[in-house]
Amino acid sequence: MEITGSSAFYAGLGAIQNGQNRVDQAASQIASNGVERAGASQSTSYQAERLRGVDRSQQQDLATSTVQLALGKHEVELGVKVAKASDEMLGRFIDTYA
To answer: Which domain holds residue 28?
Structure first.
């Protein structure tokens, strides 16, 4: 009997990888947004008034990135659960302690 890779196990690993990529992208967007705001805080009051419209869009981007960060975290956690469950099922089908 030949045992090949479990598709559920690889699906779990894929979910972990996708979640990690999502977390990486969201974190870099949040970090770059913080750098832009630090530069804007040194402007004059007139320039600050002009940039308020941009700040609203940056706040929406920050909210979107924060949601993406949370989604990535959950995707990784669920991928780990799928991979672990698949590994446990394979261990139950094959008696590794015999």
So the answer is: 7-93
Q: Which DSSP category does 1 fall into?
A: -
Q: What is the DSSP letter of 43?
A: S
The count of domains in the chain is 1
- Say if 23 falls within a structural domain: yes
Residue 1 lies in a domain: no
**CA–CA–CA angle 81, 69, 29 (5° rounding):** 145
Structure tokens at 87: 């590994």
Quick check: 53 and 10 in contact, CB under 8 A?
Answer: no
Integer-rounded Cα radius of gyration of the chain = 22
Mean pLDDT of 58-86: 90
Helices 45-93 and 7-40: crossing angle in degrees, nearest 10, is 170
Has residue 85 been placed in a domain?
A: yes
Q: How confident is the model at residue 70 (pLDDT cuts 50, 70, 90)?
A: very high
